[in-house]
Write a structure and sequence with these properties.
The structure is a homotetramer. Chain A is built from nine helices and no strands. By secondary structure, chain A is mainly α. Chain A has one domain. The longest helix of chain A has 27 residues. Chain A starts with a helix and ends with a helix. At the A-D interface, helix 1, helix 4, helix 5 and helix 6 of A face helix 1, helix 2 and helix 3 of D.
Chain lengths: 203, 203, 203, 203
């Protein structure tokens, strides 16, 4: 089982999970007597769902990017690594369901805890993945700069910390809980820039 | 992150978005007492939806072709380019929803404005993409003929102009608004032929 | 636009169209008071749908095989060829809808005419595709054995003839109309064997 | 038809079948008057469905891994092998339907017999596939270690035996019938380890 095959399945699963998100936006079909005002009401009632759609799409994209960045250094696989990846994909596929949950039950803390736990589990699995592959140089090439390993770990911690924060805040205010996730792309970009600067200074 | 990986995700997302369009055609299941005439009524009532299906499929195909033509010249990527692509895919995935909107609410200008805006945003993003990649030869190889860069920009302007036109006309006549999009493939072909002729004359 | 990219999109669209077929089998969810006998009734009432599912899956597989066999000899592409492929994919994506039609309206000749026309159009497009690519050796390598070109045309004629036959029979008996399609794999195998024998004799 | 093309279609079909499983988890949309307790009830009522989701995802992953391990040794294809693969994919696509059946009709032995038969057919087809490819070294390279051939057969027998067992137990207790499938990953891992040890001892 080469890393190439795992990446092909991974790309497929991500592409489909991203696309299924759109099914959550479905409106009831207009049959008769619908006025212009009704459609405005219907669409503006979907504002939260559009935000959730964009949020989940971006979070999936971040996981996809990080997964490929990590895979880039992984040169061989074993059964443990393969199964970590499959369990990771299992929770990726769950994202459209979690997203529909915070869309349909937007005022329920429990829905937001479910969504947050999905992100938390994904962040944890991706970190374990990296930890396993890089520990004792188990599956990676030997000359990976330790700062790349460390920068990738830091970015993993961002996802985990933010999702724990979002789960906690869900019990106080479900709206803020949603917006908190925007910290993930922002903080990851900060870490990435710092790491690049440090690598550049070295040359 | 190589362009190869982005293209694999892009192909997947396009293939699924194109296929999800067909879910908009779903008919109610016949249970009992349905006569021959009923099915004719049902199917002919779908004529608009079949047209919308074909239109969206063709527009998606045009975006797919243009995306790949542009990617062909892009030899490296950076984070900004990667995220432009991801936002582009986010609005590609929205097309089945926009299409269902103009199918279910075919007499509502607002639905057509929504669909037109989706096409407009896609056209704009693809143009920014090309602008960013080719500006100062940022991500492309250095010997790309300036006429190829310019022809691609012109074709991008077609999509943007036609979708603005269609949004405007939606307030006057929703049917014509739909047919206007057929200008996109026609005008793009005209520009492509001219550009090829000019390149051929040069040799 | 290389043939490689077209094949990637084609594989994606076929994989999804094949998988969407299964959505036609969906049963109503049991909530309360369902007896053992009810599930037997429900499942046996689906027998036709299981047959339709298998039939459409096999027809899609045949189109996929033929598409790839033809692509194998095509070494360059042009805009006309690209768009023939896209229109072909547009009718491939329609197959899950056509299949749901003959499942939900199994006694209606019109439903079977719709399904048959879908197959007929696909067969015709694939034949035009081959005709265009091989005519004057337009897009193929020059040393393709004329018997391969001719065998592929014959197999194309099988699909067209059988689907016209099935459309005609649909007005007399909708069940027989369905079974007629089984002639496609059988006749194609006969032609393939003959062609291989003829090629082998030659060596 | 190269093995490469078959693998591309296979990866696509597996990725989509795995992702469609999540549609079975869909909850009714909350409209009004839903209390906190209601969502807890709804979600905890889904516990079985979450288990089924995870189980089917893992079984699909196992089939995917075994399919690729077998394909790894297959160096050429013929029509019989190609069609065995297509029929195999046809039953892979059926898994989301079978899973929805044991989710919606969890107390019905018949539903579990249907699911078990699906797994049994898949196990049998994959074994025939391997038998056909390796018999008289028909499609594989000549120097495959006989212990690899035999270990792969043993793992195939595990799937077949366990699914027959699960079908039998379904008539006694539908819950146990579900858990029995967990034996498949466990026993396959045992066989894999033994086989690896035997191969290692040999060196």
């Amino acid at each position: 089982m080469t890393t190439h095959r795992i990446e092909a399945l991974t790309d497929g699963v991500f592409a489909i999970a991203m696309t299924l998100l759109v099914l959550n936006l479905a409106l009831p079909e207009a049959r008769l007597g619908l006025t212009h005002a009704d459609l405005i009401t219907l669409l503006s009632g979907q504002t939260d769902k559009f935000f959730n759609y964009a949020l989940s799409f971006i979070l999936l994209a971040i996981f996809w990017i990080r997964h490929h960045q990590q895979s880039h250094y992984v040169k061989k696989t074993d059964m443990a690594y393969l199964w970590m990846n499959i369990i990771f994909l299992m929770f990726i596929v769950l994202i459209p369901f979690s997203t529909s949950l915070i869309g349909d039950y937007s005022n329920e803390p429990l829905a937001h805890v479910f969504f947050g736990s999905n992100i938390l589990i994904l962040g944890t699995l991706l970190m374990l993945n990296w930890h396993y592959a890089t520990g004792h140089n188990r599956l990676i090439v030997h000359d990976v700069d330790p700062r790349i390993v460390s920068s990738s770990r830091k970015r993993g911690l961002v996802t985990i910390t933010v999702s724990i924060l979002a789960i906690g805040i869900a019990f106080l205010n479900t709206d803020i809980s949603n917006y908190i996730y925007l910290l993930i792309p922002i903080l990851q970009e900060v870490i990435r820039r710092r790491s690049r600067k440090s690598l550049a200074n070295d040359l």
